[in-house]
Design goal:
13 helices, Rossmann fold, globular, 262 residues, single chain, alpha/beta, four-stranded parallel sheet
């Protein structure tokens, strides 16, 4: 069996690269649902259907564990997948999200959250952060254009939009900024330049690999079932030039993309 990594598009590639570096021996399949992005503007019902279909595809590709790298899916679909879909269809497989591991790392009395519109509307970051520290002040800001620009490989446009989205958080004097979308680590340097070095950037590419490693160490019954041949496969639901360019930049070479029919 393999480890599946799912995202709505190319954002999860930066998470995948970090996971590959931390845990290189395992076999992986990456799936980007490029046909249906962006998820942030979709309804909860649509997001659940897309996520369920993606998870089902990865399980049929012999994945024993799936990482839902998409924050919108983690916020709006993961619990239902775990509590209803898995017990009925794949009781011996596991699906993990990225929201809770990210929250466990966020610290500060004044925390900003930048995420897609759907994730912000769910208020999952605010609800869960307040469970950790009820005295914390949480400020959520939707950033609807960032995913679109990043998918187009239009980083200058993304950086200009980022300045506008971060302005209200700067005015609140935040101590930490949570990137609540796997696309946003592409803008980490720009965010640091805007906010200054005193504001901690909580970025999932720095968090998820260690959390996954810890999970596998705690669950040898899962780890032992994952094949360890250093293999990587990449699938998308629609091939586009932006995805290819970003993938080449991240991995330093052309990546073969399989077309997933979901």
């Amino acid at each position: 069996m393999k480890i599946g990594i799912f995202d709505s598009g190319l954002g999860g590639l930066i998470i995948a690269k970090s996971i590959f570096k931390k845990l290189p021996k395992y076999d992986y399949i990456y799936l980007g649902d490029t046909k249906n992005l962006p998820y942030g503007s979709k309804t909860q019902r649509q997001i659940f259907e897309y996520t369920k279909n993606a998870v089902d595809y990865l399980f049929k590709q012999n994945c024993g564990l799936v990482i839902v790298a998409c924050n919108t899916s983690s916020a709006l679909a993961l619990r239902k997948i775990q509590q209803e879909y898995l017990p009925k269809h794949y009781p011996n497989r596991r699906v993990l999200g990225v929201v809770i591991p990210t929250l466990e790392t966020a610290k500060g009395k004044s925390i900003g959250v930048l995420a897609t519109t759907a994730t912000v509307k769910s208020h999952i970051y605010k609800k869960e952060l307040l469970k950790i520290d009820s005295r914390a002040k949480i400020y959520e800001v939707p950033a609807p254009k960032l995913v679109e620009y990043i998918e187009q490989n239009a980083l200058p446009k993304a950086e200009n939009a980022l300045k506008l989205y971060l302005k209200p958080l700067q005015q609140k004097g935040i101590e930490a900024l949570v990137f609540g979308c796997t696309h946003y680590p592409f803008l980490k340097r720009a965010a640091k330049n805007i906010l200054g070095q005193k504001v901690k950037i909580v970025s999932q590419d720095e968090i998820i690999p260690g959390k996954l490693s810890g999970y596998l160490n705690r669950h040898p019954e899962i780890s032992s079932r994952i094949s360890k041949n250093h293999q990587r496969q990449f699938s998308v639901t629609k091939v586009n030039a932006g995805f290819k360019k970003v993938a080449k930049r991240l991995f330093g070479k052309e990546i073969k993309l399989n077309l997933a029919k979901i």
